[in-house]
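Course assignment 3, question 2. Fill in each field.
Student: A.L.
Task: Predict the tertiary structure for the chain below.
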Amino acid sequence: MSDWIKLVGPQQVIEFMGVRLVGANLDNAKKLLFTLIFIAAVLLLAAVLRRLSNAVLGGRSEQARFWGRQAVKLGSAVLLILGVLSIWFEDPTRLSTALGLVTAGLAFALQKVVTAIAGYFVILRGNTFNVGDRIVMGGVRGDVIALDFTQTTIMEMGQPPPVQRADPAVWVQSRQFTGRIVTISNAKIFDEPVFNYTRDFPYLWEEMTLPIAYSADRERAERILLEIAERHSAPVAELSEQALRNMQRRFLLKAGDIKPAVYFRLTDNWLELTLRFVVEDHGVRAVKDAMSRDLLRALDAAGITVASATLEIVGLPPVRIGREPRRGAEG
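Answer field:
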C-alpha cells in the first residue's frame, strides 16, 4: 500500500501510483480535516443556540423568536466564513486574490442568488416586513411564515371579488387562507412593490355597498348603516386612531377620518349607499358577515328593500285583433 501512495518533496505532495495529485499535500489534508471539524463544531453550536433561543423567547411574540433565529443564522454564517478563510488563507495577499476571483465568479454565475441574498439584508435593514406580517410580494398575498437568506415563505390567502382575476388566480373569494404555501425569491423586492398590511398600521379601510330604490327612505338607510358600523368597529376605531397618530409622527401623512361614513352615488337604476369603516387587518370576512346579517334584519324592520335592476315599459305598438271568416260561409 505504501508503494501506491507516497509523500514526495519538501511540500509533502501526495503521489498515487506514480501520479502527483495537484493540490493534494499533507498541509492541505490537515487544513481539510480542521475545516470539517470546525464546520461540525459551528453547526453544533448553532443548534445549541437555537434551542437556547427558543427556550428563552418561547413565551414572547413570534417576531422576537424570529429575530432570535435570524441572529443565530447570521452569527453562524459569519463565523463559518471567517473560520474557513483563516484556516485556508494564512497569507493576506493570497486571500485578497482568492476573494477577487471568487467574487467575480459569483457575480457572473450566481447573479440571482447574490441578488436574493442582498434582498434578504435589505428586508432586515429596511424593516420591509417581519414574520407574521400580511403582505403582497411577487403577486402573492398572504402571511409571512418564514424568511431565509434567499427566499420568503408565505401562507397564501384568497382575494376579494374585485381582484379575483389577478394572477395567480385563487378560489377563495376573501382574505382567508387557501392552504397553499408559496416560496418567493427575496430578489423580488428590487423588481416589484411590496404591500404590507400590518407593519405600521395594522388596520384597513373597508367598504360595504347597499343599493336602494330612489323612493326608499334614504335617511333611515344611512342611519342603519352608521349604527351597524359603529357597533362593530367602535373599539377598532379608537385603536386605529392612535396607530394613525403614531404614523403621522413618523411619516409625512395627512390626517384621515377614522369614523364610519356613508357616501351616496347616483346610478341609472338605484341610489347606491357606500359605507366606509375601519377594521383590523385579520378577520375582515367575519366582521363583514356579522354586519351584513344585522343590516338585513334592520332593513326588514324598516321596510326597506335592496334594489335590483328593473325594466320600465313606457309604450306598446297598436295591437289589432281580428277573426278570419269560415270557408263554408263564403259560398
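Instructor remarks: The chain is about 45% helix and 20% strand. The helical segments are 26-56, 62-88, 92-109, 111-126, 218-250, 284-302, 327-330.
Grade: pending
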